[in-house]
C-alpha cells in the first residue's frame, strides 16, 4: 500500500479544504439550484410538462450511475488530476447549458454536468481523506464538509430563486463557471497528487454491470413520477437493475482488480455510514421538494422569498455540524451522533403533519426546517468521515464514490417514491372532497403530510439498522509525529 506524506503545515491543509470545499458546494448547489428556475426555463424553451423532469433527472442519472467509475478513475490516474479535469469539464458543461437554445442541448449539458460531477465528487472527498489524518483536525474538516453537503441544497434554492427573479434562469448554470475556475486555480496551487499504486487496468465487466444497473434504477425512479411504481416499465427497470447489481456483486468477488472491492462495503462502520447518508437525503430532499411547493403553490411565496425562507435550515445545519458535531466527533462513537440525528430529522418530517393551508411560517415550515437541518448536521459530517474509515489509501477514491452514490441514488429514488405517495394522497383527497380551489390547497397539504410521514418512517427504520450495525468505539487520539508516514486515516478500527 502506498503512503502519503502528511502535509507540511496546518495552513496548507485548510487551504486544501477551502478549494475542494468550493467544488463540493458547486456539486450540491447544482442538485437544487435549477429546481426553482424550472418553471422559467420550461416556458423559455417550450418544454412540455411531461418532459420537464428530465432537466433534473439527466443530471442525477449520469451522476448516480457513473460515481463508482469516477472514484476508480481518480484512484488510478491521480486524485488531483481527476479533480482538475472534472472542474474544467463541469465548467464547459455549465456554459453549454446556460447558452442552450433548445431542450436537447440543455439535456446534453445536464448529463455532462452529472458525468463530470461523478468524477469530481469522489476525487474531492478522497483528497480530503488523505489530507486530514490527525483525529481532531479531521473532525473539524469533516464537520465543515458535512455542513457544506447538508446545507448546500438549501443554499441552492436561495441562489436559484435570486438568480431567476433578478437575472435569468441561465445564470443558475453560469454561476458554476466562476466557482469552478477559482477551485481549479486554487487546487492546482495547493493540492498534492496521490494515486493508487500498481497498474491502471479497469474492471470492464464491473463497470458495465454497475453503470447499467444504476442507470436502470435511477431511470425507473424518474419514470415512476409520471407512470407510477406499479407500471410495467418501472417494474421491469427496477427488476433489471436489481439483477444487474446482483451480477456486479458476483463479478466483484471473482476478479483480481475489482471496481468496488467488497471489503469496502463489508465493514460494518462504513456500511452503516453509507446507509445513514442514503436515508437522510430522503428526508432532506423530500423536505426541499414539499416545502418549496407548499410555500410557492399554497402560500404564494415568490422564488426569492421561498429561497430566503430556507435560510433557517441552513443555519441549523451549520450550527449542528460546526458547533456540536465537530466537537463531539473525536470523542464519541459514530452512532452516538448519527442515530440521534436521524431521530431529530424524522421529527422534522413528522412536523409536516401539522401543516394546514393557513398555518403561519413560524409554527409550520420553520419548525420542520430546523429539526431536519439540525439532524442532518449531526449525521452528515460523521457519516462522511466514517465512509472512508479504515480503508486503504488505494481504495479511498472508490470508498468516497460509494458514499456519493448512496447520496445520489438515495435522493433520486427517495424523491420519486415520496412524490408518488404525495400525488396519490392528493388525488384521493380531491376525489373524496371535490376539486374547488379551497379544497385543492388542502389536498396538496394532505399529500405533503402523508409523504412526510412515510419519510419519517423510512428514517426511523434506518436509525434502528444503523444503531445495530455500527459498532465502532470512540476514536483513539493518536498524534502523528513530525515527518511520519500516514498510511491511512488514524481512527479506531472496528
UniProtKB/TrEMBL annotation:
<dbReference type="GO" id="GO:0005886">
    <property type="term" value="C:plasma membrane"/>
</dbReference>
<keyword id="KW-0812">Transmembrane</keyword>
<keyword id="KW-0813">Transport</keyword>
<feature type="transmembrane region" description="Helical">
    <location>
        <begin position="447"/>
        <end position="469"/>
    </location>
</feature>
<feature type="transmembrane region" description="Helical">
    <location>
        <begin position="107"/>
        <end position="130"/>
    </location>
</feature>
<feature type="domain" description="Major facilitator superfamily (MFS) profile">
    <location>
        <begin position="16"/>
        <end position="474"/>
    </location>
</feature>
<keyword id="KW-0472">Membrane</keyword>
<dbReference type="InterPro" id="IPR020846">
    <property type="entry name" value="MFS_dom"/>
</dbReference>
<protein>
    <submittedName>
        <fullName>EmrB/QacA subfamily drug resistance transporter</fullName>
    </submittedName>
</protein>
<feature type="transmembrane region" description="Helical">
    <location>
        <begin position="204"/>
        <end position="222"/>
    </location>
</feature>
<feature type="transmembrane region" description="Helical">
    <location>
        <begin position="272"/>
        <end position="295"/>
    </location>
</feature>
<feature type="transmembrane region" description="Helical">
    <location>
        <begin position="234"/>
        <end position="251"/>
    </location>
</feature>
<feature type="transmembrane region" description="Helical">
    <location>
        <begin position="142"/>
        <end position="167"/>
    </location>
</feature>
<feature type="transmembrane region" description="Helical">
    <location>
        <begin position="307"/>
        <end position="329"/>
    </location>
</feature>
<dbReference type="GO" id="GO:0022857">
    <property type="term" value="F:transmembrane transporter activity"/>
</dbReference>
<feature type="transmembrane region" description="Helical">
    <location>
        <begin position="53"/>
        <end position="70"/>
    </location>
</feature>
<dbReference type="Pfam" id="PF07690">
    <property type="entry name" value="MFS_1"/>
</dbReference>
<keyword id="KW-1003">Cell membrane</keyword>
<keyword id="KW-1133">Transmembrane helix</keyword>
<feature type="transmembrane region" description="Helical">
    <location>
        <begin position="173"/>
        <end position="192"/>
    </location>
</feature>
<feature type="transmembrane region" description="Helical">
    <location>
        <begin position="82"/>
        <end position="101"/>
    </location>
</feature>
<feature type="transmembrane region" description="Helical">
    <location>
        <begin position="336"/>
        <end position="354"/>
    </location>
</feature>
<feature type="transmembrane region" description="Helical">
    <location>
        <begin position="14"/>
        <end position="38"/>
    </location>
</feature>
<dbReference type="InterPro" id="IPR011701">
    <property type="entry name" value="MFS"/>
</dbReference>
<feature type="transmembrane region" description="Helical">
    <location>
        <begin position="366"/>
        <end position="388"/>
    </location>
</feature>
<dbReference type="InterPro" id="IPR036259">
    <property type="entry name" value="MFS_trans_sf"/>
</dbReference>
<feature type="transmembrane region" description="Helical">
    <location>
        <begin position="409"/>
        <end position="427"/>
    </location>
</feature>
Amino acid at each position: 500500500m502506498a503512503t502519503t506524506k502528511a502535509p507540511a503545515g496546518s495552513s496548507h491543509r485548510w487551504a486544501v479544504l477551502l478549494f475542494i470545499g468550493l467544488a463540493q458546494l458547486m456539486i450540491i448547489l447544482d442538485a437544487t439550484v435549477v429546481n426553482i428556475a424550472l418553471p422559467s426555463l420550461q416556458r423559455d424553451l417550450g418544454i412540455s410538462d411531461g418532459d420537464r423532469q428530465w432537466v433534473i433527472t439527466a443530471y442525477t442519472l449520469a451522476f448516480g450511475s457513473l460515481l463508482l467509475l469516477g472514484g476508480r478513475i481518480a484512484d488510478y490516474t491521480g486524485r488531483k488530476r481527476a479533480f482538475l479535469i472534472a472542474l474544467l469539464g463541469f465548467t464547459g458543461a455549465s456554459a453549454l447549458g446556460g447558452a442552450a437554445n433548445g431542450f436537447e442541448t440543455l439535456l446534453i449539458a445536464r448529463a455532462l454536468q452529472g458525468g463530470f460531477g461523478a468524477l469530481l465528487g469522489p476525487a474531492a472527498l478522497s483528497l480530503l481523506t488523505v489530507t486530514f489524518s490527525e483525529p481532531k483536525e479531521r473532525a473539524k474538516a469533516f464537520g465543515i464538509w458535512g455542513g457544506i453537503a447538508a446545507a448546500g441544497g438549501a443554499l441552492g434554492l436561495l441562489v436559484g430563486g435570486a438568480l431567476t427573479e433578478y437575472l435569468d434562469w441561465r445564470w443558475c448554470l453560469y454561476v458554476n463557471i466562476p466557482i469552478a475556475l477559482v477551485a481549479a486555480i486554487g487546487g492546482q496551487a495547493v493540492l498534492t497528487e496521490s494515486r493508487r499504486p500498481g497498474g491502471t487496468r479497469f474492471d470492464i465487466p464491473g463497470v458495465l454491470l454497475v453503470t447499467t444497473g444504476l442507470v436502470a434504477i435511477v431511470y425507473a425512479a424518474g419514470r415512476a413520477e409520471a407512470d407510477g411504481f406499479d407500471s410495467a416499465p418501472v417494474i421491469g427497470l427496477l427488476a433489471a437493475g436489481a439483477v444487474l447489481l446482483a451480477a456486479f456483486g458476483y463479478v466483484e468477488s471473482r476478479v483480481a482488480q475489482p471496481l468496488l472491492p467488497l471489503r469496502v462495503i463489508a465493514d460494518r462502520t462504513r456500511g452503516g455510514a453509507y446507509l445513514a447518508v442514503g436515508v437522510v437525503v430522503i428526508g432532506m430532499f423530500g423536505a426541499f421538494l414539499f416545502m418549496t411547493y407548499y410555500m410557492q403553490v399554497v402560500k404564494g411565496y415568490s422564488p426569492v422569498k421561498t429561497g430566503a425562507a430556507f435560510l433557517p435550515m441552513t443555519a441549523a445545519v451549520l450550527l449542528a455540524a460546526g458547533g456540536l458535531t465537530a466537537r463531539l466527533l473525536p470523542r464519541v462513537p459514530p452512532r452516538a451522533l448519527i442515530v440521534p440525528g436521524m431521530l431529530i430529522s424524522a421529527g422534522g418530517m413528522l412536523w409536516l403533519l401539522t401543516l394546514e393551508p393557513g398555518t403561519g411560517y413560524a409554527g409550520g415550515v420553520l419548525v420542520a426546517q430546523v429539526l431536519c437541518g439540525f439532524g442532518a448536521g449531526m449525521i452528515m459530517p460523521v457519516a462522511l468521515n466514517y465512509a472512508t474509515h479504515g480503508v486503504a489509501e488505494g481504495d479511498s477514491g472508490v470508498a468516497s464514490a460509494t458514499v456519493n452514490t448512496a447520496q445520489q441514488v438515495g435522493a433520486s429514488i427517495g424523491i420519486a417514491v415520496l412524490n408518488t405517495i404525495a400525488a396519490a394522497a392528493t388525488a384521493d383527497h380531491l376525489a373524496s372532497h371535490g376539486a374547488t380551489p379551497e379544497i385543492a390547497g388542502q389536498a396538496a397539504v394532505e399529500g405533503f403530510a402523508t409523504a412526510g410521514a412515510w419519510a419519517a418512517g423510512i428514517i426511523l427504520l434506518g436509525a434502528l439498522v444503523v444503531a445495530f450495525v455500527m459498532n465502532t468505539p470512540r476514536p483513539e487520539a493518536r498524534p502523528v509525529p513530525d515527518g511520519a508516514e500516514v498510511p491511512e486515516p488514524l481512527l479506531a478500527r472496528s
